[in-house]
Amino acid sequence: MSEPVAVVGAGIAGSWAALLLAEAGHPVVLHERSGAAVDRGTSHWAGGMLAPDCESDGAEPAVVRLGRRSLALWRAHFPETPLNGSLVVSHPRDRADLERVARQTVGHERVGARRIAEIEPALEGRFAEGLFFPDEGHVEPRLALQALHGRARELGAEIRLGSAVVPEELAGTVVDCRGLAARGSMPELRGVKGETVLVETAEVRFERPVRLMHPRWPIYVIPRAGNRFLIGASSIESEESSGVTLRSALELMTAAYTLHPAFGEARIVEFGTALRPAFPDNMPRIDIKGRLIAVNGLYRHGFLIAPALGELVASYVGRGARDNEVMRWS
Fold first, then answer.
1. Contact 279, 286 (CB under 8 A)
2. pTM of the prediction?
């Protein structure tokens, strides 16, 4: 019988690790300090973009590699995952930012006004050029977590909610996926603030994430079920987490309005903010200290790279497989 494994933290990293460990035949217990909504962690407020090619603008090659592998895992385990690509556009005055993304990324198709209208009819006549990344996708994080937990349970994993355990005090093999809550044992971690606005409007329809390049307000707009859209910015180097600031809210909504005027009449459903765990190099890390395996530092790439990291953990636990670019031993 395969060895039992405890996973601590039922956010996106812990959920994928638990699922793939259970799939490999390990008895798994997944501990989560919050309730069924898992609303005390970063994953609850994530964007859910699966965009490895687009993320190659600024992301390390290892993140792109892990992201591409993760896309395959999303496809294999959840075939219903929307894989409609992603679209990047800019206003004429911000063309230099679009050109920079074009130079620093791969896997895109340059598109003009007619093609943009074919890809996203709601943007017809609004943008003269853009970049279309056809091999990307997105998920709705809260629904994706529920699906991951359901699939893990089907494979025999036990999920213990309201279970605020200390990984070092558990017996056997333990996978620590607590994010910033693990900073006591990983002092290099820092929090990077992400802010979002969830709005609702029936006047706009998108089939994929749309990124608007802007020197001050680069935003992404991600479609959600029920005529809803998540509007977010990339990252803010701050650990102040009391809520979305007035300035940020204004900038996010102003940028969305310039993307499409109908967002000016959208109903605000929710403001959200969370601190993403990051190491100084913004690279994910799997730290291995004997029986304790810590998965952390996913930065703003959580839903993009968590499946591949979970696969690495399962491969290491099952057969000692190593990935020296991501794993560290002590």
1. no
2. 0.95
CA–CA dist 198, 264 (Å, integer) = 13
- What's the sign of the alpha-carbon dihedral 46, 271, 192, 160? negative
Q: Is pLDDT above 80 for 243?
A: no
Residues 6+ apart with CB under 8 A from 81: 50, 74, 75, 137, 139
Backbone phi, then psi, for 234, in 5-degree steps? -65, -70
Angle (CA) 55-117-260 rounded to 5° is 75
Query: Residues 149-171: what's their mean pLDDT?
Result: 97
pLDDT exceeds 80 at position 248: yes
Identify whether the C-beta of residue 51 lies closer than 8 Å to the C-beta of residue 131.
no
Pinpoint the alpha helices (H) of 9-140: 12-23, 52-55, 61-77, 95-104, 113-119
Q: What percent of the chain has pLDDT over 90?
A: 87
Domains of the chain: 5-67+139-184+280-329 (3.50.50.60), 86-134+190-278 (3.30.9.10)
Helices (H), the chain: 12-23, 52-55, 61-77, 95-104, 113-119, 141-154, 246-259, 302-319
pLDDT class for 162, splitting at 50, 70, 90?
very high
In angstroms, the CA 321 to CA 314 distance is 9
pLDDT of residue 263: 96
The arithmetic mean of pLDDT across residues 297-308, rounded, is: 97
What is the radius of gyration, based on Cα positions, of the chain? 20
Find out whether 45 and 194 touch, Cβ atoms under 8 Å.
yes
CB atoms within 10 A of CB 166: 13
Q: Which residues pair with 293 in a beta bridge?
A: 175, 288
For residue 140, what are its two tokens? 């709705």
